[in-house]
Specification:
The complex is a heterotrimer of chains A (357), B (274) and C (305).
Chain A: E1 4-12, E2 17-26, E3 31-35, H1 42-50, E4 57-62, E5 65-66, E6 77-80, H2 92-102, H3 107-121, H4 136-148, E7 154-158, H5 166-183, E8 186-191, H6 194-200, E9 203-208, E10 211-216, H7 218-223, H8 228-233, E11 240-247, E12 250-253, E13 259-260, H9 264-272, E14 276-281, E15 286-288, E16 295-304, E17 309-315, E18 318-324, E19 335-340, E20 346-348
Parallel strand pairs in A: 3-8, 3-9, 6-7, 7-8
Antiparallel strand pairs in A: 1-2, 1-4, 4-5, 9-10, 11-12, 11-14, 12-13, 14-20, 15-19, 16-17, 16-19, 17-18
Chain B: H1 2-36, H2 40-43, H3 57-65, H4 68-100, H5 104-114, H6 117-130, H7 138-161, H8 165-174, H9 178-189, H10 191-207, H11 210-215, H12 223-232, H13 238-258, H14 263-268
Helix pairs in contact in B: 1-13, 3-13, 4-7, 4-10, 5-7, 7-10, 8-9, 10-13, 12-13
Chain C: H1 22-53, E1 55-57, E2 63-65, H2 69-76, H3 78-111, H4 117-123, H5 125-128, H6 131-142, H7 148-155, H8 170-195, H9 199-208, H10 212-239, H11 244-249, H12 261-270, H13 275-303
Helix pairs in contact in C: 1-13, 2-13, 3-8, 3-10, 3-12, 8-10, 9-10, 10-13, 12-13
Classes of the chains: A alpha+beta (357), B mainly alpha (274), C mainly alpha (305).
The complex binds adenosine-5'-diphosphate and magnesium ion (MG).
């Protein structure tokens, strides 16, 4: 159990910076998820913490120890790899016992630990099998078991669910979450899937091009995205973005000049930003309303998901999506009237993408 | 109907040609083995005969009148020694090359395949003589390791490259040093590759002619080196000469049949993928 | 040698203290024996040979720097030019026979789908024989008075040949023996290439209505070219350094009719102990081999698909 501190980390592979001047504090026993699009540097950052990749500049602390030159073998961390990286020539038992054996632990102690972990993960019946004879889900559990028996300072996960089918993924997601509450160890989990991030994390690190965009709780990241990138990346379907501007006293859609009923403080913020901004509104915050009050839009596409129905349409020339109650049975070609929940919309700077405050 | 008929004929034609080529390739070997079992009168019979009473007299003569058995022992010492040395040097080297992806050392070892062996032999001979090593097995074993080590490296490289990087990393996280990763993780995973490399190294070292020709002395003479002397007196003892040739040819043939499936990789030293 | 062009980016560098990093240290330790061996047995002798090439050694053990004298002597040496001719005559003759024969055998083997592994390995067994043994077995077959070869000639009504005892026939004969020895090797490589060709191309050609002959010349052969060049490189390296079979069978004779550069150089070095001149000769031969390999490698890049 340990906290992790990254200070001004920069990483290059000889070319451009993959990670630029990144600092991050992870508390002891915290479950932190690194999320971001593929190639943004999540794995690199995780591997820097693991000691598998040296930093170009900056310092890494685990606990209060600076570990820059400490090899992975001596950092007392455990890692679950995307392809599980089980040792093909060892049994499940051997895979789990290997690290303990290297540490010179007694046979009895090893046996106790391996069996306890196996029980926890429901893999006791397979202890004598080789990885080849296991299903994907079972292998994933063995990889976790190999990490758990170590009782490490920190658990690192690099997209451990991405090779599982959708149903299993949801199940294992819940199990890892439960496990983290049981083990009370610092955990870092890397994923490109924002649903995994939202459901599992105590705090989320949203990464983009090697730079932290936002580091906060899932609620905060969802409700108060720091910039347009985070707003667009978190949430599904993605947030609608519409250009707006100040026209006289009113905030209007740039596309067709239609006035939007927004709160007064937003007018001030828009004024400060030079009168133009990008409006962000999630599909669930576009509401159906009385045709006399709302904005009329013609439905282009309907996607029923069962619990909700997604409705696609054009708003002032920009494609947009609303999440509606399936009971209203929308049809393509119909005209609907919409309004936005005034307190739930976001405004972003046109140039920097930063949220306007 | 006509297409299946012609396909059938095409297949037969193919088999026929294959058989003819096979006869051309195998007949000399068969002739050699047969001659080694012929009495001297049968060997020099003209027209050459296929019908004869087999005899072991050539082999008996070889063992009784020449130190051929001790040549055989020398051959085994040299070949086993150089194969072992090739494995000991080549396995860790191949592992490091695969790990670091720095390939120039592997390329450098191939230089030995392009340069005429005599170019190395001159300096070697001078060096070994100055070190007083001529007369021992070491010059021969060391010179043959120049053949075996590159074989081991080039055979094993794709095996090591085939191990997913993440397995090495998992082992690092589990607490393995690099040396331990080689011993506990990589070597068990490439075991069959090591066996194949060893057999091929053995065959190539066994077959190599030039270095023993110069570096062996009367005490360390191997079968191949001795064969040159037998050729000198050949016309008088054809049968014995063929017995020598048969005995020398036997180990590589037997071993190579064992690994025939992997032979191409070894013979081409990574020239052909797959 | 296709896989020679591996990436050379060294990625195992430490963070703070790259030199004392335990990983780097262990990697160095693991590779040290092989590296030391390579330097001691390959790199150093090579450089030593270059040094030898610039010196002359008297019988009294006296060493004298002679600059380019050994190389100048080479240019005036009739035997050198003869060796060069013999080397290249043998090279082109052997290469043509082996490449053509290898492609032919490879296609036969490729079409014989139901060949057992054992039968297949019978076809490659000549490769496995030491060249010394190959030389010995052909000596008796080619013997002018008792040999099987002349008997077979007489069966088809041809006059007997002197084979390796004839200055005219010695080179074709030796090329033929080497072809017997190494054609299966070329066939193995080409077979590997054939087996890795994309099958759908042939199906497409069939659908397009191409005849088998046309398919071979227009599709199979061009796709095989890189493999064929690879086989050519590997055979060139050996053919240009032709030694074993000649040394066993003819020692360069009759006269100097089969005196390749490698055999000639060996004799100068180890029979006349003219070390400086032999080194110069061997270095010249090495340069020729490197040159041919480089040229062929360029050709391979040109025919890659
Ligand atoms: N060993 C390496 N050498 C060179 N570039 C690398 C290496 N590892 C990762 N990269 C590059 O760094 C960037 C980030 O990679 P990574 O951290 O794996 O992204 P992800 O967020 O998808 O896990 C990518 O552009 C990748 O190409
Ligand atoms: Mg990744």
């Amino acid at each position: 159990m340990a906290s992790i501190k990254l200070r001004n980390i920069t990483k290059t592979f000889g070319g451009p910076n993959i990670i630029s001047d990144l600092s991050l504090d992870i508390d002891d026993r915290e479950f932190v998820v690194f999320v971001g699009p593929s190639g943004c540097g999540k794995s690199t950052l995780l591997r820097i913490i693991a000691g598998l990749e040296p930093v170009t500049e900056g310092d890494v602390f685990i606990g209060d120890q600076r570990v820059n030159s400490l090899p992975a073998a001596r950092r007392n961390i455990a890692m679950v790899f995307q392809d599980y990286a089980l040792y093909p020539h060892m049994t499940v038992y051997g895979n789990m016992a290997f690290a303990l054996e290297l540490r010179g632990m007694s046979k009895v102690e090893i046996d106790t630990r391996v069996r306890r972990a196996a029980t926890m993960l429901d893999i006791e019946p397979y202890l004598d099998r080789r990885p080849k004879a296991l299903s994907g889900g079972q292998r994933q559990r063995v990889a976790m078991g190999r990490a758990i028996v170590r009782d490490p300072q920190v658990f690192l996960f690099d997209e451990p669910l991405s090779n599982l089918d959708a149903r299993l993924r949801g199940q294992v997601r819940a199990e890892i979450k439960a496990l983290s509450q049981q083990l009370k160890t610092t955990m870092i989990f890397v994923t490109h899937d924002q649903v995994e991030a939202m459901t599992m994390a105590d705090r989320i690190v949203v990464l983009h091009a090697g730079v932290i965009q936002q580091y906060d709780t899932p609620e905060q990241v969802y409700e108060h995205p720091a910039n347009q990138f985070v707003a667009g990346f978190i949430g599904s379907p993605t947030m609608n973005f519409l250009p707006i501007r100040l026209q006289g006293d009113e905030i209007v859609l740039t596309g067709d000049g239609r006035a939007l009923p927004l709160t007064d403080d937003r007018r001030g913020r828009l004024q400060n930003a030079g009168g133009e901004a990008t409006l962000g509104v999630r599909p669930e915050h576009i509401l159906l309303c009385d045709p006399r009050e709302g904005i009329a839009a013609s439905i282009k596409l309907v996607e029923p998901l069962g619990s909700d129905t997604m409705v696609h349409f054009d708003l002032a020339g920009t494609p947009a999506i609303a999440r509606v109650d399936p009971a209203i049975k929308p049809k393509v070609g119909e005209t609907i009237a919409l309004r936005m929940a005034p307190s739930r919309v976001h405004m972003f700077d046109v140039k920097t993408g930063q949220v306007l405050t | 109907m006509s297409t299946t008929l012609s396909a059938d004929w095409a297949r037969r034609l193919n088999s026929l040609q294959l058989a003819l080529v096979g006869v051309f390739l195998l007949a000399p070997v068969v002739w050699m083995v047969l001659a080694s079992f012929k009495q001297s009168s049968d060997v020099i019979a003209y027209p050459p005969t296929l019908l004869f009473t087999p005899t072991l007299e050539n082999y008996v003569a070889l063992i009784e009148t020449t130190p051929f058995l001790s040549y055989g022992v020398n051959s085994i010492i040299v070949t086993v020694g150089s194969t072992t040395l090739g494995i000991v040097l080549g396995v860790p080297a191949a592992f490091v090359i695969s790990w670091t992806r720095v390939s120039w050392p592997a390329v450098l070892t191939l230089a030995a395949r392009m340069v005429p062996g005599a170019l190395f032999l001159l300096p070697w001979y001078i060096l070994f003589r100055n070190l007083g090593m001529i007369g021992s097995y070491w010059p021969i074993i060391l010179s043959h390791a120049v053949i075996t080590m590159p074989i081991v490296i080039w055979i094993l490289l794709p095996y090591f490259d085939g191990i997913p990087r993440s397995i090495y990393e998992a082992a690092q996280v589990d607490g393995c040093s690099i040396t331990r990763i080689l011993w506990r993780i990589a070597l068990p995973l490439v075991g069959s590759g090591v066996a194949i490399a060893a057999i091929l190294a053995f065959v190539f070292s066994w077959n190599f002619f030039l270095f023993v020709l110069v570096l062996s002395t009367s005490d360390t003479k191997t079968m191949i080196a001795a064969s040159f002397n037998f050729v000198g007196e050949g016309s008088t003892r054809w049968g014995v000469l063929m017995a020598v040739a048969t005995l020398i040819a036997l180990p590589p043939l037997v071993l190579a049949m064992i690994v025939q499936r992997w032979l191409i990789a070894g013979l081409t030293l990574g020239a052909v993928k797959g | 040698m296709a896989s020679l062009s591996r990436s050379t980016s060294a990625q195992i560098t430490g963070g703070d203290t790259p030199r004392l990093n335990p990983q780097t240290l262990q990697l160095t330790a693991l590779s040290a024996p092989a590296v030391l061996f390579t330097f001691a047995m390959i790199a150093f002798p090579f450089c030593y040979a270059i040094w030898l090439g610039f010196h002359s050694f008297s019988a009294t053990g006296h060493t004298r720097f002679v600059g380019l004298d050994n190389y100048r002597k080479l240019i005036g040496d009739v035997e050198f030019w003869n060796g060069l001719y013999v080397t290249f005559a043998l090279y082109f003759l052997g290469l043509a026979l082996q490449i053509a024969g290898g492609i032919y055998l490879a296609i036969l083997l490729f079409n014989a789908k139901r060949l057992s592994g054992f039968t297949r390995s019978l076809f490659i067994s000549p490769i496995l024989l030491p060249s010394a043994v190959a030389g010995m077995m052909w000596i008796i077959i080619l013997d002018p008075s008792i040999g099987l070869a002349n008997y077979l000639l007489s069966l088809v009504g041809l006059p007997p040949s002197e084979w390796i005892a004839s200055p005219v026939w010695v080179l074709p004969t030796i090329a033929l023996i080497d072809t017997w020895h190494w054609t299966p090797y070329v066939a193995l490589i080409v077979l590997g290439g054939l087996q890795s060709l994309p099958q759908n191309v042939f199906e497409a050609a069939q659908i397009d209505g191409a005849s088998p002959t046309r398919t071979f010349w227009r599709i199979t052969l061009p796709l095989l070219l890189p493999t064929i060049v690879t086989a050519t490189v590997l055979r060139s390296v050996d053919l240009l350094r032709f030694f074993d079979i000649i040394y066993i069978m003819t020692q360069g004779g009759p006269g100097n009719a089969s005196n390749t550069l490698n055999v000639y150089g060996f004799k100068i070095g180890f029979e006349y102990f003219n070390i400086g001149y032999a080194s110069a000769l061997m270095l010249t031969l090495s340069t020729i081999v490197f040159g041919v390999v480089l040229a062929l490698n360029r050709l391979r890049r040109a025919v890659a698909w």
